[in-house]
Amino acid sequence: MKIILLHGLYMHGIAMIPLCNRLKEAGHEVLNLSYNTISPDTPSLFGEMDDFIDGDEAAIVAHSMGGVITRAYMEADSDMSHCVKTVITLGTPHQGSKIAEYFKEIGIGDWMFQSASEYLMPKDTPSWPKGAALYSIAGDMPIGPARVLLDAKQGEASDGTVLLKETEIKGMTSHETFPLTHTALIYAKRVSNRILDILA
Question: Which segments constitute the GPI inositol-deacylase PGAP1-like alpha/beta domain (predicted)?
């Protein structure tokens, strides 16, 4: 199967190489994309995704903001997006990011996130577009800024960066939680095993 990998905010495709290699070893054809996360050129990015899919059945595996970019790709409704049958997101703030909202409220969000704010700010009751099954995988080991800036005030579960409830979205196929931090979701063998199970 053709699989597209999309990394998260402030990352590069390098971060996804271990997962990319695991998927290739399992026999999948993988496109590990890099993109400017604070100023994403979505027309160019979506064009690369379309070109890679090229009419074949495909899946997308995305970490954090990459999952929100994936939803934007599916909503753009290109012909090739209809070939995407499975989407797996890892720690994606589908409902928007409270931590991003916090930084915006204290006056540094525009500088930190620039045009990525369009994808990161909390939305009212978002829903997953029809067509591809969404498997949302989340972490609940709260080591990171959300633990200090949000959890202490609200007592909410998180992976240290994204609140657990933010990883849920109306229309998803399943929601699973692992005892992992936000970044560890990319590298944990138990998560890559689960990804391979879903794609089998």
Answer: 58-99
- Residue 106 belongs to domain spanning: 2-199
Domain at 17, CATH number: 3.40.50.1820
Q: How many domains does the chain have?
A: 1
Structure tokens at 65: 């903001």
Supply the pLDDT for residue 79.
98
* R_g (Cα) of the chain, nearest Å: 16
Q: For 153-172, how does the pLDDT look when each residue is reduced to its tens digit (9 = 90+)?
A: 556 888 988 999 999 999 99
Which residue type, as a one-letter code, is found at position 192?
S
**DSSP state letters, the chain:** -EEEEE--TT--GGGGHHHHHHHHHTT-EEEEE---SSS--HHHHHHHHHHHHTTS-EEEEEETHHHHHHHHHHHHT-TGGGGEEEEEEES--TT--HHHHHHHHTT-HHHHHGGGHHHHS--SS-BPPTTSEEEEEEE----SHHIIIIIHHH---BSSSSBGGGG--BT-SEEEEES--TTHHHH-HHHHHHHHHHH-
Question: pTM score, two decimals?
Answer: 0.89
Q: How far apart are CA 19 and CA 5, in angstroms?
A: 9
pLDDT-above-70 percentage for the chain:
80
pLDDT > 90? residue 64: yes
